[in-house]
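Quick look at the format.
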Amino acid sequence: MPGIDESLLEAMRLPGARSAAVVDWVSGLALGVAGEAPGGDHEAAACETAELARMVAEYRSFGPLTTARGPDGSTAAPAVEDVITTNADSYHLLRFVTGALDGSFFLHLWLARDEGNLALARMRLARIADRMVL
């Protein structure tokens, strides 16, 4: 099972990938980053995307009141699987990592809109998140 660095490298191999990060959505800290930083600062990007992830994970209007369960029945992650933000030239895809420690981590993929394939990126990022070991 791949760790953080291997998972980020795999995410960066997606067509159009500009950056990838593993972020703790509770603290806003990046556990690992690859590629260029959205907005020029990896730490700021981690904090900002964590704020979005936290909002989606904690407000019940975005999903069921329950959390997802891991294969062993433990609480794994928020009921929301992923968040997609679209702008003029890129996509930001946040994928919650299930089964990781206390379930407070997500993968952030920044994808160039003209080079990337959002559907493919979403499927591959889900697979990466499911296999990743922290």
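Next, a different chain entirely:
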Amino acid sequence: MSAMTQTPPLPPLNRQFVSHFGEMGSRWGINRTVGQIYALLYLSPRALNAEEISETLEFSRSNVSMGLKELQSWRLVNLRHHPGDRREYFEAPQDVWEIFRRLAEERRRREIEPTQSMLRSALLEEASSDDERHAQQRMQEMYELIEKLMTWFDDVQRLKPETAMQLMGMGAAVTRVLDFKDRLIGGKGKATKDAHSTEPPAGS
């Protein structure tokens, strides 16, 4: 039986990224340990098993096991098996857009959809007071905004990764076009209002 090889330490640049990702993950509502495990897998040129992850990050095997289960529930890691090796190996998706898409889908399922469901139920209730009618009006505005955002999200999800990246790169150009449209419409509206004004010109 071959001797076990010791997992090499992380290079300083990699460790900096892993540490930062763990700190940022805690701000996004992700366990710090889970964030660091994912950052390690994201940078790794090959799939890693739980023992390698534990040794590299100096985490207990139980923490690594729980972290990997959490990442699997988010569909943010892929499971691999090597011929003749009973251990499980994990890797992050290679495509950054695919990572973003899976993360966005899970956040939608866990956070957005329950809110949509609650709003739909609240809007179907019969308002019994002015306060409740006002509340429903505000909830209706929120519901319509979420619906529009989710429709846009579904449209973007259907795009090819390269097309989606091009779309995001057009952000500044699209903003300029919409700003020009607003100013154009605003100018026309002012001209129409002036044309229909019944007030005599100044000095007449």
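The helical segments are 12-27, 32-43, 50-57, 61-73, 96-124, 130-157, 161-169, 171-195.

See the schema section for token definitions.
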